[in-house]
Amino acid sequence: MIEAVGLTKSYGKTLAVDNLSFSVPTGRVTGFLGPNGAGKSTTMRMILGLDTPTGGSALIDGKRYRDLHQPLRTVGALLDAKWVHPNRSARAHLQWLARSNKLPAKRVDEVLEIVGLTAVANKRAGGFSLGMSQRLGIAAALLGDPQVLLFDEPVNGLDPEGILWIRKFMHRLAEEGRTVFVSSHLLSEMALTAQELVVIGRGKLISQSSTEDFVAQATENTVRVRGPRLTDLRAALAQAGVSTRDEGENLVVSGMDCADIGELAARTQTVLHELSPQRGSLEEAFMQLTGDSVEYHTEIADGPTPATLVPAGK
Amino acid sequence: MTTLLATERIKLFTTRSPWWSAFLALGLTIGFAALVGLNHSGGPLLVEHSQFGTQFGLMVVSVMAALAITTEYRFATIRATFQAVPKRTSVLVAKTAVVAILAAVIGEVAAFGSWLTAYAIDGGPEMAITTGADWRMVAGVGLVFAVTAVIAVAVGTLVRQSAGAISILLIWPLLVENLVVLIPGVGANIHDWMPFTVASRFLNGAEPIAPMGPWASLAYFTGVAAVLLVAALAVANKRDA
Amino acid sequence: MTLLAVERIKLFTTRSPWWCTLIALALTVGFGALMAGTADATEPLNIAATQFGYGFGLVVVMVMATLAITTEYRFSTIRATFLAVPNRPSTLVAKATVVAIMAAIIGELAAFGSWGIASVIKPDIDLTINTAYEWRAVAGVGLVYALSAVVAVAVGVLVRHSAGAIAVLLIWNQLVEPLVQLIPKVGDDIHKWMPFNIANKLITGDPDPTARNVLQGPPPSDAVLGPWPAIGVFAAFAAVLLGIAIVVANRRDA
Ligand SMILES: Nc1ncnc2c1ncn2[C@@H]1O[C@H](COP(=O)(O)OP(=O)(O)OP(=O)(O)O)[C@@H](O)[C@H]1O
Ligand SMILES: [Mg+2]
Fold first, then answer.
1. Which GO terms describe its molecular function (chain A) (predicted)?
2. Pocket flag, ligand 1, residue A144 (CB < 6 Å)
3. Range of the structural domain that residue B176 is part of
4. What is the CATH classification number for the domain harbouring A51?
5. Closest CA relative to residue C117, chosen from C57, C207, C49, C55
6. Contacts of C27 in chain B (CB under 8 A)
């Protein structure tokens, strides 16, 4: 269980993380979602005690990271696969880490085996491809057989095979009852990997919910209506308590399906040129949500205001 | 602490820079002693002649020690380090200790190696290490190297950049300390308290007008290193990794 | 010409050259002020003595010149550079030229700045630059800085690591050259032909080093050449080093 309470970090004038509170439940994969520069990495560094919060705190099983005894046995993390001395071999890198937390030397070979780096264990890490570096980073995270794992954009730059490998790996870790906290700026990726989602934008919390709920809310369906004269239909829709929005010549209706709108059109004797269901793409929805403003915060929390969603193909 | 020392030892020796530095430091000092021995004439070769190259070794060790910490910042392994062991003070003290011990070993090997080389080339009874001053001049080299390594790690921690740290560590003893003496009036007084000048009095004996004797000089030099290290620890604890 | 512009943009859009310039000027001019301020009747000021900080400026300029190329390797921008202009010799010559010009400007500012501040602090001492020696002692600083910058760029290309290149340059300039004198018999002769000692001849040339008071300027060079042939030799040394660096860079993977 990771718990952030009022976590805040400013770098000079930049407010990277702003009064962020969330919790990461045990035994599940929790996605940490936000666009570039949202403050994901900063938050993770603060959880790991690398950066000191300007305010608030982050606790792991009720303790600050700095107070953990032999922390690698509790928390494993891969924040950046490049945090390795290029002239050190993969094995040497894991050896010193193992030694620092009194982990048995044979554990190094075990984790190398798990991530499939045994064959290149004695090669310089500087010569590794991105995928290999990433595997080395994961090996380091697994070293202490920790219950809590943090990964910062682990699939960044990986090929499809690597992405699949990581995805399966996360699931396996969660099935083993571990707490996995993984960041990404791709909602579509997280929809496949994570069961829970913590979404932030500009350092602030936007939502915390299960992935299912979030996706359902974020991709609320709308219907596009086109016709020469829509005044009566618009009034009728308003009367029915359905929200509408003009988009050029079109009317975008949310909260009512095509059949019902068709009925209503017939009743108001409206000529329709088009009546088509629209499905918002995950990425667009996500961009809308995290894009510019804090207002979305409450909107998502009390159920979405569909007017903020852009229909597909637009 | 032994765990941390072992960790830092693994880290140091699994990169190439300590090997390079040891090799260079020994090559330069002992090579210089050989050059001096071979070309010597007029009067017997003395112990001090064999130690002319000490400063080469000292500067190389200083660079090595600074790199031990600045490369951690350069490759962000300092974050992996603090992630594995969040007690930053302990980590940095362990690193400083390991680097200082290596520096001491390099210093002793360099000093005795130089002495032996010179002795082998053109030795005589005058080359014998007998007095306290002789012992300080040779065996003391390791101590000065170790304390210098502490200074270098501290400066490296404060500056975090190889280029900056090395420039400071080389320009200070080689240029600043020598140039201040030129300031009319106060120059000589300032010079008397410059750390590396003081350290060389421990090795080469203090002139009667010097403010401190040899052992007090070493203590002063060590004090300077300790103050710098404490400052570095305070800063590293406060700063984001 | 385009290449010069490219290299100029690259140099001035990072921070380290500005820092180095600032430090170099502060150290040299500051030292000039210190010397002037503390001079008294027993140790009167002269033109050479205003230039005591020249050695500080030199090492800082060399650090700046080294970083101009080693940071390209550090951040792999050298690859972007060679992609943009595959003609590596021209690129490196352009870089050396821009860095050398920058170094020359720093040198002149440092030298005349030190001299100027001394004149301001001690207005009653006549510090007019008259003789050829005095002109070289002040105006020559820029030339020595420029050529040293070329040496530094060459070493930077060869070594490629900031730490290594800076260590080589500073240890050579500040330690190897003075220490060779300690080698019995041959030491002094070797020292006479050490490159930076030769370059120094331009600045501290004429006066007989044995007769000169220490406080009359930076330590005099004992090079056997006259000031101008000496700087010619140093220029040739810099050119040869740069040539080697270019050959190596051409053959090596970027
Ligand atoms: N050390 C630092 N100094 C100054 N500003 C910083 C620092 N680290 C992060 N920031 C700023 O804080 C904000 C959040 O950065 P952070 O790296 O945490 O975002 P992120 O969500 O991880 O983004 P990405 O998806 O691109 O990795 C950014 O505006 C960034 O510029
Ligand atoms: Mg990030």
1. ATP binding; ATP hydrolysis activity
2. no
3. 2-238
4. 3.40.50.300
5. C49
6. none
Q: Does B131 touch chain A (CB under 8 A)?
A: no
Q: What is the pLDDT of residues C85-110, one digit of tens each?
A: 888 999 999 999 999 999 999 999 99
Considering A210, A237, A264, which residue would you say is the last residue of a domain? A210
Q: What is the interface pTM, i.e. ipTM, of the complex?
A: 0.84
Distance between CA atoms of residues A191 and A286, nearest Å: 12
Mutate to test the interface with C, among B45, B63, B175 (most CBs of C within 10 A): B175
Q: How does strand A75-78 pair with strand A55-60?
A: unpaired
List, for residues A283-297, the tens digit of each pLDDT value.
666 766 666 544 344
Any ligand 1 atom below 6 A from CB of A40: yes
Question: For chain C, which residues make up each domain, given as ranges?
Answer: 2-251
Helices B162-171 and B132-159 cross at an angle (nearest 10°) of 150
Distance B104 CA to ligand 2 centre (A): 42
**Domains in chain A, number:** 2
Residue A14 near ligand 1, beta carbon < 6 Å? yes
Q: Chains that contact B by 3+ CB pairs under 8 Å?
A: A, C
Question: Taken in order B63, B69, B72, B77, is the CA torsion positive or negative?
Answer: positive
CA A30 to chain centre: 8
pLDDT digits (tens, 9 = 90+) for A156-200: 878 888 888 888 888 889 889 899 999 988 888 888 888 999 999
Distance CA C5, CA C21 (A): 20
Domain range enclosing A184: 2-210
